[in-house]
Amino acid sequence: MKALSFVLFSGLFIMQPLCISLNASAESASVPTEKKEIKRPINIHLLKGNGSVRSIYPIIPGYIQDNQLYICFETSIDNQCLVVKDAGSGEIVYSGTFTGNTLVVALANSGESYTVEFV
Length: 119
Prior knowledge:
This protein has one helix spanning 2-30, and strands spanning 40-41, 43-48, 59-60, 62-65, 68-86, 92-106, 113-118. By secondary structure, the protein is of the alpha+beta class. Strands 1, 2, 3, 4, 5, 6 and 7 form a seven-stranded mixed β-sheet that branches.
C-alpha cells in the first residue's frame, strides 16, 4: 500500500509540469495576436528661430509608430513655441507651445524627414 501511494504521489509531481505547459500553450494559441507597427526611425533636424542658417543642422532622435511622430528632446523644454514641418512636402504637422521631453504628434501622412523650429 505504501508503494502504491508513493508511485501515485510521485506521479503527481512528474505530471504537473507537463499539464502546466500544455495549459499555457493552449491559452497562448487562443489569444489573437495583434499586428503592432514597428518603430521606424526618421530624420528630425533642429532649426533655430530668427533666420539663423547653418550648413549642417543638429539631428534630434525620433521615430514614427502607429501613425504618430515621436520627437525625443535631450533636455526638458519649458513653454517653447515649436513648429514641426514635413521636410519633403513643407506641410506643418504641429504648431504650438510645448513643455516636456517627448512631443507626440498624430500624423495623417507620414514622411521620411521632419524639421523642428523654435520660434
